[in-house]
Amino acid sequence: GPAHLFRLAGKCFSFVESTYKYEFCPFHNVTQHEQTFRWNAYSGILGIWHEWEIDNNTFVGMWMREGDSCETKSRQTKVHLVCGKSNKLAYVSEPSTCVYSLTFETPLVCHPHSLLVYPTLTEALQRKWDEAEQLLYDELITEQGYKNILKEIFEEAGLLKATEEKEAEKQNNKISLEFETVEKCSKEYKQLSKEIKKLQDLLSQHGIAYKGNSGES
Question: DMAP1-binding domain spans which residues (predicted)?
């Protein structure tokens, strides 16, 4: 993420509401401590640093996940980053059971470019993003396709964690395609041939050289 935010690492910021004290330690965790004299006063973890929340290609918050268990799931917290005169935890709420929302104010995010994702990427990933922009401009990919590429870039950069579904999909792709009958195989082959022809025509229209491979036949 943004290098200038790393200076918050190793520090903790607290907020007291009613009988609870919340503590946010950037890039580490969020905890809650019940400040009462009850024998079983709750004190626990509301989330551990996990990934960024990215919206409109901008870092907007931090997700703290895998906190203490709560019924059938783990507690998790989204920390919203907003511009403020000093570093402080300004607001805490629980919009849904065991999902918390914290607002963290800091002057480190006040500059309009301070939370842009692009400058934090490696040159290789920036090039990948530039190519995606060009493909979108040339209408060779859809808006959804463009978003998917960006998501892959963010995952590759370690800003987002790949979802379990995606990992499962990768595993499935490793398994070779099998067809129950020759008919099904022929049908699939014809369909793929049509798609390849369409893509070749599209490449020709845009003057992009296409080199076939020996496996085509």
Answer: 117-217
